Amino acid sequence: DGGITQSPKYLFRKEGQNVTLSCEQNLNHDAMYWYRQDPGQGLRLIYYSQIVNDFQKGDIAEGYSVSREKKESFPLTVTSAQKNPTAFYLCASSNPDRASNQPQHFGDGTRLSIL
Amino acid sequence: AQKITQTQPGMFVQEKEAVTLDCTYDTSDQSYGLFWYKQPSSGEMIFLIYQGSYDEQNATEGRYSLNFQKARKSANLVISASQLGDSAMYFCAMREAFADTGRRALTFGSGTRLQVQP
């Protein structure tokens, strides 16, 4: 079955450490997204990519970095510059055609905590 | 800037009854899409239903229907015959047709926690 795989499910970060969250999709979608969810809150956009080798900052990109070297993969690095990284991170993908009715498909998320 | 407002932090409903979850939105765009997602305690986001701004009829998907009132900029989710498994967070989201920037991301509301009681 096609879907989005995020790993790991749980991740712990030490002070001053960079950590990378994995996101892989086999839905053949061109567009991929990273969202952050804080407890009791909605999702906020960190980065998005419409096509391989291209990505754009979302609303809360500071302290994060991404790459898009392959269509299937969109890893997110939480850098030491992100002072409050504890959150639930969700990766999504969709078909980026001009119609607005394409739903985004989500992975199961990664819970990141500070040690 | 677009904005999604969900004014009900929590809702209770008796099993087998219907419930309406409110969502209002703000956009200056004429073309946009509205989505509802369900998030169980396990965390995954499950797509429920979609309504396009130019759709003349309200969307329906099984027990889910969307009460779309464009002039009032509201897109309320109606769940009929509630089941215990419907207990979850529900998020309303919007995507505008950003033809120039290519940004296709969703903007989410803060969510409503629905608890179905037996």
Please provide a written account of the structure:
The complex is a heterodimer of chains A (115) and B (118). Chain A has strands at residues 4-7, 10-13, 19-25, 31-37, 43-51, 54-57, 64-66, 76-78, 87-94, 105-106, 110-114. With 115 residues, chain A is mostly beta strands. In chain A, strands 2, 4, 5, 6, 9, 10 and 11 form a 7-stranded mixed sheet that branches. The model of chain A has no long low-confidence stretch (mean pLDDT 91). Chain B is mostly beta strands and 118 residues long. Chain B has no helices and 12 strands. Chain B has strands at 3-5, 10-14, 19-21, 24-26, 32-39, 46-52, 60-61, 64-69, 74-79, 88-96, 107-108, 112-117. In chain B, strands 2, 5, 6, 10, 11 and 12 form a 6-stranded mixed sheet that branches. In chain B, strands 3-9-8-7 form a 4-stranded antiparallel sheet, with no helix packed on it. The interface between A and B is medium-sized, with 31 and 32 residues.
